[in-house]
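haha ok so turns out i had the wrong file open the whole time. this is the CORRECT one, sorry everyone. sequence first:
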Amino acid sequence: MSEKFRALLIEKKGEEKDAPQSVRLADLTLDDLMPGDVVVDVAFSTVNYKDGLAITGTLPVVQKFPMIPGIDFAGTVMQSDHPDYKPGDQVVLNGWGVSETHMGGHAERARVKGDWLVPLPGGMTSADAMAIGTAGYTAMLCVLELERHDIRPDRGPVLVTGAAGGVGSVAIALLAKLGYRVIASTGRASESAYLKHLGADEIIDRAELSEKGKPLAKPRWAGAIDTVGSTTLANVLAATEYDGAVAACGMAGGGDLPASVMPFILRDVTLAGVDSVMAPKDKRLLAWGRLADDLDRAKLHAMMQEIGLGDVVQAAKDILKGKIRGRIVVDVKA
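then structure:
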């Protein structure tokens, strides 16, 4: 019989589509996992906003039951039938439908497709990788998108919405180290000192962007990283300078976009969508390589808090209530 390991397990109470779900810590074996050609001894995972939605059942993120949540993990390869990996290799996983259609990282073991993995960058620990996680990796993809549209530090300030969250925190730290002047938008005035420590030069209240505004406003920033969507994104676009760009990666405020075409056709503004789930491997490798080089580790450690596997459910509830600052790292062995 396979050795048992601990995992957070989401189960559904009944076959009906709207049947309630439950979450518990369970003892599983490798036989309980889904197919894959690499088995990983998971060291750390994290809790992202999407994990909060999955674990609480707020939205139907989970498509198959039972399910181990956790859209990220980092650890050591135990078994491999994939040509790119061998036992002992340090690896990271983000996305690919893990915790939606394939069992994820809130467990001491994971079995996945090797094509979904990337090597842990040199000089980075598994805990560092999960302090970054999908949130930080997404932030780096957004920075890359701004660079692709030639939004350089000398072009002007860059706005970050949802600034105290995971994506926002890492985005501020990255942009500051790269030399940008950063404007942070947050609804939590109490986090001002934290945001300035990460590198924010100016802090604005999210209320400035959350109410319906003009279709074309006074230009305020050369570029932006938006995690909120909806009216906030519409106002961000309206206040973007000529030939500016906005990287949109979230919809914490809603999935709609009540915007005008005016910023696009009168100011040549670009709205660039950023997806972290299905990004191709070359883009993933570039992003993780840049994170290893461009992210201040001291600032990374300042934005993280560590919890054990038994604390994940409460953290999932807290992240949906906006109570979490920065990044949560889950020590799955604790």
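The radius of gyration is 20 Å.
again sry for the mixup
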